[in-house]
Amino acid sequence: DQQVKQNSPSLSVQEGRISILNCDYTNSMFDYFLWYKKYPAEGPTFLISISSIKDKNEDGRFTVFLNKSAKHLSLHIVPSQPGDSAVYFCAASLTGNQFYFGTGTSLTVIP
Amino acid sequence: NAGVMQNPRHLVRRRGQEARLRCSPMKGHSHVYWYRQLPEEGLKFMVYLQKENIIDESGMPKERFSAEFPKEGPSILRIQQVVRGDSAAYFCASSPSTYNEQFFGPGTRLTVL
Q: Coil, helix or strand for A100?
C-alpha cells in the first residue's frame, strides 16, 4: 500500500523556469515531510523539510508547500538549473523515524 | 566529518548464499535505518535501529533477513539464502535523533545470480 505517491514519473523544464514537483499522501497523521534529491549510483541527499504545523518552508531556490486538507506536498525550484537534474523523492513520517517514500520524479532541466 | 559509509558498494552472490551489508553511521548519530530500492521503485523502509536495539522492523521480511547495530562497530544487514528477488540497492541512513533529516550512504548494490 503506497502511502506516499508521486504521480509524475518525469518532468522536463527549461533552465531558468520554475520546476514544480508534486506529492500526495494518504495518512492524515503524517506530521513531518521531507524532500530528497538523488543522482544515479548515489544515496539520496536531503533538500528541505516541513513540519505539519507550517504550510511553507523556504531555503534558497527551494520552497516546499504543504496543503494538509488536500494531503498534498509540492516542491518548487526557482530558477531551475541544469545541475538540478536528478530524481526527487518526497517522504513522510508520523513518528519522526520511519519514513514513507514516494516512487520519485525524474527532473530534467534543459539548458 | 565523514558521511555515512556503506560497504561493499557492489556485492554479487549466488542463490542460496549469504549477503552481509555494512553501514557505519555519521559520527554522533545513534539512529540507523535500512531501506531497499527495487528497480523502478521508490525506497522502502526495512528497519530502524538504535545501539543494540531494534526499534522498528515492520518493513523487513520475516524470514532470511536480520539486522543488528552492536555497541561497537557498524550496523549489519544480513540476508540468508539469497534469492534473485533480493537483487536491489540497499541504502543505510543515519540521524542524530527523530524528527530530523536522515543522511544516506551511497548504497550497496546486491546482485543475485
A: strand
